[in-house]
Amino acid sequence: MKIMRLHRWPRDAQAAIRLQRRLAPQVRLVPLERGPQILAGADAAVSPDGQEVIGGVVVWDCRRQAMLEQRVARVPCQFPYIPGLLSFRELPGLLAALRKLRSTPGAVLCDAHGLAHPRGLGLSCHLGLWLNLPTVGCAKSRLCGTYAEPPPQRGGQSPLWHEGRQVGVVLRTRDNVRPVFVSPGHLCDLAGAVQLTLLAATRYRLPEPIRLAHQAVTAARGAAAAGPQE
What we know:
There is one protein chain. This protein is α+β, with helices and mostly antiparallel strands. It has one domain: 2-Layer Sandwich (archaeoglobus fulgidus dsm 4304 fold). Helices cover 28% and strands 26% of the residues. The protein is built from five helices and eight strands, in the order H-E-E-E-H-E-H-E-E-E-E-H-H. The chain has helices at residues 13-23, 86-99, 123-131, 190-200, 208-226; strands spanning 38-46, 52-61, 66-76, 107-110, 135-139, 157-162, 165-171, 180-186. The chain has an eight-stranded mixed beta sheet with strand order 3-2-1-4-5-8-7-6, with helices on both faces. The longest helix is centred in the last third of the chain and has 19 residues, at 208-226. The chain is globular. The termini are far apart.
């Protein structure tokens, strides 16, 4: 998968925040032209020694309920952990994994936030600008905003509000399980973000491509922790 460079990577928090504020107005929240059936799930983690970012991507066929491709990449970790600036730490690993793909998915779901971010540029928004593809944030916990508990059945949802604006949805993907925090990333609106999340969340709380990407990253991280085998 070919990816054009969007910007250089800042090395400190102040420069990263300035870049977020410059990029946020470029995010476009628009209805999906048609519901893509080939989705990618993306997840990232830092190696146990803190030296590398491990990015994982899985391409998933929603109609066939089958994984088409899986890629993992490791790159040096060059940005500290700072809440609200996660994309500057993890995106280089995700982009490296995406560049290994043989195909281009119709949309990418991330284990991260999109619009539901203090400056309106969560990792999913940031990634969408890099890829020029529809992206969705589907996170396991809240970063910002207030909400009421959604109804208990699958598809139950309640709005997530931040500074007087709806930035996402708190969505139940299975009956009587903890909800996920869904927000649009780029080239996707809120309704489309919910649609894609439910389309891909077939058996578990998390959408299947995200869940599989997380498994791939966890396995790679475990291998790194074990060290070289004799």
